[in-house]
Each structure stands twice: as structure tokens, then as C-alpha cells.
Amino acid sequence: MTTYTAAQVMTATPVVPVIVVDNVEQAVNLGKALVAGGVPVLEVTLRTDAALEAITALRKEVPDAIVGAGTVCSRAQYIQAVEAGSQFIISPGLTPDLLAVGKEYDIPYLPAVATISDILLGLEYGYDHFKFFPAEVNGGVKALKAFSGPMPHIRFCPTGGINEKNYKDYLALESVLCVGGSWIVPTDLVQAGNWDEITELAKSVQQ
Ligand SMILES: O=C(O)C(=O)C[C@H](O)[C@H](O)COP(=O)(O)O
């Protein structure tokens, strides 16, 4: 099994799709559609009962994807996500327990920060790659520029409120390796099984 670094996951695609899946078949079809469109990194959120099974199935059925778990909010969820086969883990925030469990496994963990104090806490545990969430309501591009004053070496995946109109503003920052978002996996297209259109959306995102 290939183990990536956080930087490798974050530079494998300019956009990490934040995925919500209802069942395994839908997840596999969605994963194939995204990979076909040049977006290999898949963040499967643990918001549905199907999520863990979907991660396991994606690892098996879509070998070109880099499959991770999102919305990981506790140590127990972290371990379940690793056991399901996740190649990276993302949280919407951070806690001392999450930062500690992330160091117990080899795969990359992106805790989310919203403030300099969050970044300082993450640094204490040895993290320097973070999700920035929710990006737009926490100051967006301006906040990231301000963070980079005292913290020029920190790298981010901003997520939350990012879309086709503003993602390039984020990617233009040196501190931003990728952005996260749901806009390339719209619920209506996923529910309708409109995989070709999702492939086209994936193709439309550029560095
Ligand atoms: O569940 C998580 O762990 C999250 O981080 C939330 C997601 O990242 C946002 O729901 C995506 O934000 P939008 O692209 O604005 O829809």
C-alpha cells in the first residue's frame, strides 16, 4: 500500500471534492467519474452510514483514486476510517485527541484550523499542513494572507464557501496547495447518476 505525505495528497489535484454518498454503488460510480475527469483525490465524509463501506469499495474498485475520509470528529471515527482503508484523514476542526491519534498512524492527517491559535496548537503536535475551515466566513483569501505573515511555512487546503468563481483566488496563494469543495459534486447530479456531467465538472477545474 502506498503511503502518501500530506503535501503529496494536496498537490495531486487542485480541488478535493467533498463527497457525501448514500450507498456504495453511487460512491464507486462517482469516484470513477471524478478520476476520469482528472480529479483523483476523494474526501468521503463520514456523514452517512454508507461512508466507511464506500471508502473500502473505492480503494478496491477505483485503484487510481487517492481515497480519504472527511468529517472525522473523534478518535473512534479516525480509527474506523483508517481500518476502512483511508489513505488520508480530514477533520472540520482539531482537538488534542485528534491531533494525538493522527500521530499514531502513518497516513497524512489534515486537521482544520480557523485561527492562528489553532495553527499553534497543531504545530505543537508536529502538523504544518491544515484544512482552513470554513474558509469564506473566516476571512477567506485575506485571512490566509494574514496567517502567512507570522507563519510563512504553513500550507493550507481552504474549504467552505469555495466555488468555480473564487477557487483560483485561493490557488494563487503560495500557502494554498489545493482547495476543498462540494461544487464539483452537486447533490442533484449525484442523486440523478449524471456521471458524465460530473466528469465534465472535474475537467473544468485547473490549477
Ligand atoms: O464535513 C466536513 O468535514 C467539512 O469540512 C464540510 C465541508 O468541507 C463543506 O461542507 C464543504 O463546503 P462547501 O464546498 O461550501 O459545500
Automatic annotation (TrEMBL):
Pathway: Carbohydrate acid metabolism; 2-dehydro-3-deoxy-D-gluconate degradation; D-glyceraldehyde 3-phosphate and pyruvate from 2-dehydro-3-deoxy-D-gluconate: step 2/2
Keyword Lyase: yes
GO molecular function list: 2-dehydro-3-deoxy-phosphogluconate aldolase activity
Family of this protein: Belongs to the KHG/KDPG aldolase family.
Catalytic activities: 2-dehydro-3-deoxy-6-phospho-D-gluconate = D-glyceraldehyde 3-phosphate + pyruvate
Subunit and interaction comment: Homotrimer.
Name of this protein: 2-dehydro-3-deoxy-phosphogluconate aldolase
Organism: Marinomonas gallaica
